[in-house]
Amino acid sequence: MSLFTGWRAALRIARRDALRAKGRSALVVAMIALPVLGVTAADITYRSAELSPAEHLTARIGAADAMYSDVGLGPIQQMPDGGMYDRAGGKEPSEEPKPIDMRTVLPKGVRAITEQSVSATVTTSYGIASTEITEFRTSDRMARGRIDLVGGAFPRGTGELVATEAFLKSSGLHVGSDVTVTTSGKKYRITGAVELPADLDAKALYAEPGAVIAPWAALAGRDKKVPAPQPGETRWLVEGAGDAGIGWPDVLAANKAGALVNSRQVFENPPPDSEIPLLRSNPQYAADRVYEDSETSAALITVVAMALLEVVLLAGPAFAVGARRSRRQLGLLGTCGGDRSQVRAVVLGGGLVLGGVGAVAGVVTGLVLTVVFRPMIEGWAGHRFGSLALHPAELLVIAVLGLVTGLLAAFAPAIVAGRQSVLESLTGRRGVRRGSRVLPITGGCVLALGVLIAVYGGTSGNSTLVAGGSVVAELGLLACIPVIVGLLGRLGRRLPLSPRMALRDAARNRGRTAPAVAAVMAAVAGSVAIATYMSSSLAESDYRYMPMLTKGTIALTAGDPESAERLPAARAAVEHDMAVTGRRADISRVWAGSDCNVYYEDENGCGSLSLVKPAGKGHTCPLDSKGAKELAARLSADEHRAMMRTPACVDVHNSAGSFSYDSDNIVIGDAALLDTYVKLDDPAAAAALKAGTPVLLNEAYAENGEVTLKAVHTYNAKDKKNRELHPGPARKTTDRLKVYIAKAEYATTPGIRMILPQRTAERLGLHTQPLGSVYAVGHEPTDAENQRVTAAIDQAGGGVWVQTNSGPNDRGSTILLILTLFAGVVTVGAAAITTGLAKADAEADLTTLSAVGAPPRVRRSLSGFQCLVVALTGVLLGTAAGLVPAVALRLVDLRAAMEYMRQEPMESAYTPIVLPWATIALLAVAVPLLAGGLAALFTRSRVALARRAG
What we know:
The chain contains 34 helices and 23 strands.
């Protein structure tokens, strides 16, 4: 019999066996298909979510041929894509360039529409909201691809506009609602809902050209109480004459007039470098640097490597169980003259048949699920896919990889089946073999080697070594599983009957238990690796975030003395409509001389007030002085972090003014401010303020318990009232004030360096003005709460606003979130499928229990505890295996952060490793309980007794 004939027979037997045992075959196919599905969906999602340069251009200029804009520099030179430009000649003009009349710049025969935006406040169903209104003809065909209609109709007149879905959701409005621009008083009807494919979260309104800005400006011209609109630059979307579009000569002509052009024709067919004037005068622009997200690429490399290993580990127990269930059939093959190679061929044929079906099913299902859940994924990513990017070569590689790894997974069961004697196969006896002592020792060595490779890759910044070391470590741990499973039997001596039997059964049947544990371990390792990396990255992002206000607080502030008179009404609105907890703390501004908020236009036309920071140790930040780079080179990440958190360095790194920009973060307040905002519960500090002693929150400014307050009392000639009281030249004063010094931890309080009592400011000859109030809140204000308060403030006269913390901007990469989702699905799926396979393989043991008279509940509880043992052991080992690549990847990030910190000593090198305890608890508790519960639920209490062979 030829080799081809033998394999054809083996494949025919494998196909018939698969059709005969449909349930088991479905489990095997699902084992292979699940990882292939995850990798396929992740590949399609990743490729589709990454917009191409051409799709980015469409998001910017829509279906137009080009966009013209006035950058206000005079004649310019630009790169073909419009991303970089500079003044022609590189010299500052002698006078301010005049605005461009774009109609004279546009090529002849083109069609153009304009776009101009203005910030405005409009009425909503809750109150008043601030938003951006853009005058742009959204119904024009040039707007397609940039703005798309999703409901209703485009505006047809100056009394209509369209709104983005995000704006409608936040404002409580809908298509058909009316909105009023509060400054102009003009009412508009919302005729449609639109979306920006490149920014689904944008909250904006769109009106026809001339519908908003012109009436508003006309009203402001007639009524001086109405603030004039402050529109942005006008941009022109252009459609070329014929099919030529806007070519490079047209771009060069527009550059001479001072216009920047983003042209689709030039982008798709860029000119040679010799024809680009900017490159001739600035050759450095040719080195277009491409920045790669090292975190995402490193994570992708590691996850893909572990996903391929997961296919093998998930499919391995499936084929092992399948071969064991078919051992009588394989024994009959031996009685008919089949040799060991033909028995192995039958098992491998099963791997080929079911592996091929699983690979194809995984790819097709991954594609279908991505299409079905595309809107949800796009909403999660915040933008539409440019297109569903299908790369046939990549999908084919994924399918072939699934097929090959499925075949490899059947290799070990095929070897075992080929070694079994015909008598063992026919009687069903498995025989007893001593466990190998070489395998666990080798596995331990391989595990240690893999960990060392991964750690070395992390410390050297090589993500490829991290991926390779993680796979090697997991393989080593896999080799140790039989010994670990064998030790489980010793743990059940003092346990009740069902868990004791489950542990001993797992120890006796290591050949069945070890592959099942490996399957769960592989799935959990990927989830834990991604979750650990993400939680660590988010902790780093939270650490780098510099809040404008103390957590859990909001600030109500007035911009000028006239607005300050409306603070009582604004306070009432905040206390009524927001989740205020506790008492409020009133604060005031303080300054010397004429108020810089009023007389900022005149040079040296206002006073100044500042705290003098002493020099020397404890006062000057070593990382911001001479020798900082040499010092940074000697510091570890923890030492650098500790130094950055000292009051001297915190002050340099975080000196933004949340309440005042001209008083060196000095505010007027009382003890309520300590309790509500600073969160300083110190009776001594409250008593000091009551006695007129300032409270210093940053000890770096104190020397011998005192601070130096320097003031320049400059009075502007336009400030007639104060000028009469303070004639003569500017007066400079330096006062030494005894202060109460708070602990070092309060130096990080956002926006406040020192709290000055009102009477002390008056004694020093300083001026004060009520600024607003600070409140503690139970949660960040919602859109509806903000809009209600804004409406109440506007009704009272306006000029007062509520300031809140926006929170960290970057809450994690979209790609990492998608990978986490898929890894979680694979984890739950693998545990469920492994439960089914373990139950199928243990059917003979369950039959024996019934034969000896065990109650039905024992069958159920034993089956449940068997799966609980497998799932819990796999989860714990998977957690340990998943931490290896996560920690190693964080070491890669640490190396990069340290290199950057040594170049910029004031930049943080903090790279924490944070365990995702919630995810680990979910996997360690919920998944094993789910597996055990399903096994117990689907185990039949009573079965017909079958004769045991032998």
